[in-house]
Design goal:
The chain folds into 2 domains: 70 residues, 2,3-Dihydroxybiphenyl 1,2-Dioxygenase, domain 1; 59 residues, Roll (2,3-Dihydroxybiphenyl 1,2-Dioxygenase, domain 1). The chain is 20% helix and 36% strand. The protein has 3 helices and 8 strands. The strands form 2 sheets. It has a 4-stranded mixed sheet. It has a 4-stranded mixed sheet with strand order 5-8-7-6. The longest helix has 11 residues. It starts with 7 loop residues before the first strand and ends in a 5-residue tail after the last strand.
Length: 129
């Protein structure tokens, strides 16, 4: 029995509309669900990015409560040939690239933050191979 992948990743956010604008309009992720004052969901490749208002899900009763605080880190994998295009896109959007890091096999990744301060990273295919 093997786990195939991490299907969902969850961020806790403060404002649905600000997150929608960032992830849908700026990064181009498809919005696949929204419940006012609670959550917004995006398709990211074959995965789903769940963005919850933490206080709205802290006392959840129909599901186990979803709640956390603080900033977390996510990495989005892109085709190697698209890495520089993503870097240019982020710059054009006036999103600060905090750092670009060199890795094995000459691969690089870069870091930036979302409106809630979560640390996001663009990585090329093969970074963990």
């Amino acid at each position: 029995m093997n786990i195939l992948q991490i299907k969902e990743t969850c961020l806790y956010i403060k404002d649905l509309e600000i997150s929608r604008q960032f992830y849908q309009e700026k990064l181009g992720f498809e919005m696949i669900g929204r419940l006012e004052n609670r959550h917004i969901f995006f398709r990211v490749g074959s995965s789903v990015l769940l963005c919850f208002i933490a206080q709205a899900t802290k006392s959840e009763t129909s599901l186990p409560s979803h709640f956390a605080s603080g900033n977390i880190h996510l990495a989005f994998e892109v085709n190697t040939k698209d890495y520089d295009l993503w870097k240019e896109k982020i710059k054009r959007l006036d999103i600060e690239i905090i750092q670009e890091q060199g890795w094995k096999k000459g691969l690089k990744s870069f870091y930036f933050r979302d409106p809630d301060g979560h640390l996001l990273e663009i990585v090329p295919e093969g970074i963990w191979d």
